[in-house]
Amino acid sequence: MHRLNKKRILLGVTGGISAYKSTFLVRLLRKNGADVRVVMTKNACEFVTPLTFQALSSKPVHTELLDLDAESAMGHIKLAKWADLIIIAPASANFIARYANGFAADLLSTLCLATDSPVAIAPAMNQQMWLNDATQENIKKIKERGVAVIGPDSGEQACGDEGPGRMTEPEEITTFLAKIFQTDILTGSRLLVTAGPTREAIDPVRFLSNRSSGRMGYAIASAAVEAGADVTLVSGPVNIEAVGVEKIIYVTSAEEMCTSVMEKINTTDIFISVAAVADYYLQNFSKNKIKKINDSYQLMLHKTPDILAKVAALDNAPFTVGFAAETEDLKFNAIEKLRSKNLNMIAANQVGGTIGIDSEENALSVFWKSGEMKFPQNSKNKLARDLIKLIASRYNEKNSNKTH
Hints:
This protein is an alpha/beta fold. It is 35% helix and 25% strand. It is built from 14 helices and 19 strands. The strands form 5 sheets. An 8-stranded mixed sheet has the order 12-11-8-13-16-17-18-19, sandwiched between helices. Strands 2-1-3-4-5 form a 5-stranded parallel sheet, sandwiched between helices. Strands 6-7 form a two-stranded antiparallel sheet. Helix 1 packs across helix 9 (170-180) and helix 4 (76-82) crosses helix 6.
């Protein structure tokens, strides 16, 4: 269930006896590596206390739309943007009716309207309420908007009735949610992704490098796996986990990264160069530690191989995507790199200020020869999924044009 690892899941709990099941759902989601935040309606608090969910999620529980304390830390819009996925479990008939008709009278319904992330609901109610025409019409409405509906199950209910309306069990909901992240938009494609920094040795204990954490490249590799691709990741020295990626080649220097890439490139359909490869390497590596003797010390540097340009220049080059971290003139510099290296696409981000190259969040401006798209600041995991969708769209369009 690696697809839930590091995902930001917002669990909405509405009023109903099935609310107790959602405590087990929190535990299962966290067990599978998800970061879980809980939002409860007023009626939900009558069945399970917010303190219970706070203890299980290890995060404050949100209950009020206009909670000034919550607003100062994470307002409803920020919370909606934070979530990779929203799941309402249990979803009462009352909540479903409000959601279907666009009401935003409380925090939970507001979040559902304010998010662009996937939303799923697990209905739970009396069997007659579920079978009522009004409820069925509301379910139809939200399904047509792309909301996933999980269940309900049939069986004996708390009121003594028998029939459909029981909330689906937490284990099944967890499995269902994991599948939402499996898009299959790149099934059959072979991707090669580079990530992280490189290190260029000065002496046995020192090296030249940069601030790259590798998070963006690793997130893109994981998102590509979710998209169904066969992914190989070539990674510089980092200290993070490649979720779901089985083929990883670890390298240190730019030369090693170049060699590994060129060995794999002939069996690659899409090459995404996210690594912050060092521009220069030291001409004369010292076999012994350099002593601090003189007031100054000069290093003679030479250019490292331009991996991205070498790949793009191949006769049968794969669909090639570059990255550009810029401190100024982002659009101009990105388009110039796109043109000069003959890339299919480039993703550029501004560094400095509040967003550093090693930040957990990012914002991207993506350019190709006939267009551009901007992705606002968000978690690198979420940006990676958005970028993979765009790459898949452009790659599939390019291949479609080839066959006509």
